[in-house]
Amino acid sequence: MLCALLFFSSFSLLRAAIPACNNGVTTFDPPLTVGMPSWYPSNYTNTKPPIFPGDFKCEYKINVPTGWFALIQMTVDMTYFQNVSAPVIVIDQLQNREEVYSAQQERFFFASNGGTIRLSTGMTEQLSFGFKITWLQYPAMSPNITRVNAGDRNPLVLKHLVNDAFQFVADYQVSATIMPLLNPLDRQYYRGIMFFDGPNGNVSCLGSGLSLLNSKAQYYSTGKSMTIMFLPGNPIRYFTSILLQDYINTKGIGTFQGITWSLQNPAHYASFLMDASISPVAIQTLNINSNSEVILSLTGTGSLDVYLGGATKNRSNLVTSYNAKNCDNYFPQLFLGDIKTYVLTSGVAILNISEKSYQDYSPSKAIGRKGFLVTENYGVLSPNQQISEGIYSPPNVSITVFKYSIQLADLVPGVTLKITNHTNGQETYHQYNSNNLPRLNVSNEIQGEKFFVRYFSNGKANKGFHLDFELIEASSSSIFSIIGVVVLLTFLLF
């Protein structure tokens, strides 16, 4: 009996601490003392917040002056409820709405002129709710101004952990997309990345990193500059990757999806539904672990363009295109480079990709496989032009013809090319360099079980390498000839 009375007394005290919501609105203004937080309710200080009664409604309006932002750390704990709608709705300075069912000191950010928190407990009998507001000034602008050029093949990757503000300038307009979370727990920290339409934070806010991610769109400036801020009080645990290009290259793309391959991301495979029935859609991939990626399959309708780097208006880095209805023989296909962009220009398709190049690229499904090998900076003078890949015969096929044609091999002095085939444990190869150049655009055939292509720049700048290939069935006479050669070599050796 005594325990019950104590519980009822404590419960009543918690409810009694809840302030009245006059006219349904409570307003919060910055305090005179900079950095001094405000608590709601006043007796809530990061411990268990008070329990609100059922059918309690209030709108909390948080004002933010120019050049400042509000950091809100909110707790919502709902132990029993009948109301299916979210008890809390957070509305930011751009009227973006976020429903909150549960939060433990979770961070929300309002840029100027502020935002609103709406509480509606409905029939909930035990809803604990409270928040802390801290008003802070925007971080100082970095003195460096970074350019993104319309002719750049690769997007500029902004990776940052430090609270700072950066200005970017383009030839025409700045476009920004954001890569998905490496850890779902970092969702709240994306709210603390702010984008502004101009050279500082005193211009129109385009939105937060989380809003950008959820929209699957891009932010773009109306003029030539954009500012990106990483707000204080926002301890991002992993690098946030923002891709920046000139908007002239991405203007026609309606939605963006993506993945970052990294040690923090345990996934090695990804599947994307791409719906380009209204406008082109893009998949952006960023590889921190390595620079290789494999398309495993493409099904559906429409045309898929593959760019080494970002999508470009001049299509200078467009490496290939696929018709989703008729492309099965072209996979698996390897692509090299830290960034790849896949743009579906029409139709609806499903794209499956892998980070495990050696495991998923080398094996062949059947005779008739087609593909190519191309260096990551193909066509551009660069010392980073390497390939070392193997292509295997299909299962239950002993001997395959590797038919290939070299489109480009920029064998400046120091750069080497070696094409090797393996048959019954025997190895033969063709080796090329600046003194022994291969013939270009000429069909060649070698037979074997495994084929390896190795192109090394060895630190020498060159324009790269491109080889097209196809696996075709070996004739019976060719197989018997190979067996005869192996028998003869064995006889001579013994």
From TrEMBL:
The keyword Manganese does not apply. Residues 1-16 form the signal peptide. Residues 249-355 form the DUF7591 domain. The keyword Membrane applies. The chain crosses the membrane at residues 474-493. Keywords: Membrane, Signal, Transmembrane, Transmembrane helix. Residues 148-231 form the DUF7592 domain. Coiled coil: none annotated. It comes from the Eukaryota. Residues 17-139 form the CUB-like domain. InterPro entries: CUB-like_dom (IPR003366), DUF7591 (IPR056013), DUF7592 (IPR056014). It holds the Pfam family CUB_2. This is Uncharacterized protein. It comes from Caenorhabditis brenneri.
